[in-house]
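Researcher: Re-running this chain for the archive, since the previous output was lost when a drive failed. Same request as before.
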Amino acid sequence: MKPTLAALLAENRPRVVQELAKKMGERAGPTYAALSPEELLPRMEAAFEAMYQAVAQGKPEVLNDFVSASMRQRMAERYALEEMQTLLSLLRQVVLGLVDSAYGDVPEQRLAASRTVEELSHGALQQAFQVYLEAYEEQVELQRRTLSELSTPVIKVYENVLVLPLVGAIDTERARRIMEELLTGITRHQAELVIIDITGVPVVDTAVANHLIQTIKAARLLGARSILVGISGEVAQALVHLQIDLSGVVTRSNLQAGIEYALEQRGLEIVPRSLPTGVPEEAVEEAGR
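Model: Regenerated structure tokens:
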């Protein structure tokens, strides 16, 4: 009576691990190839152990869980998907070679063992690709959120005065983020005046104008008045053509004018600094450093 597949794997553990390590060193990508034998061997043992346990317990998820954990760790170490696929493919190849050698004269047992190995390997390869895809999508989403946050800074320029400079196109999703960031900033800084600078927005159409109006209305509900600045001649014409009503919104031509207006509302103004009589300007600047 031939041993079971689990028993066969247990009996040939050292042989399989050594052969797998040898093949990986020869055929894997540059990352695995750069590992020393002392570093490579434990990883091959872990891969073999996962397949052995999956066979012994009759639970493919044991191997799949190993693949998931390994994929995420390897991706953090900058390993390519192809290198994990190579590992799983070579593990399948080595184990199938062992099956052929052990069960060559027992076709039924050879067929059953081969089917088990093939199913486990196929499932593990699918799992590797799925984890890679999920991790890639997570990374893309993280980058998208980071870029969105960087492109929507809320800046405190004076006590109770914020500036929201907008750069780039504004779609529905980004408009939602803009409103969230602005309302959070108003609450955090107890802002009473918000300067929204659209100098860097290339196109202001009906959708963008409506997004801005909704943002201004939301800010008003929190007790903050909005000042819209950076309206170019082309944008002004477009707003008139689109019949966008900005009659209730304070507008200024540029950011400087918007800041001056905001300071006026606070009872302040920007004036040239007067120098003490007989003191050179360079000396005053040096003293202020």
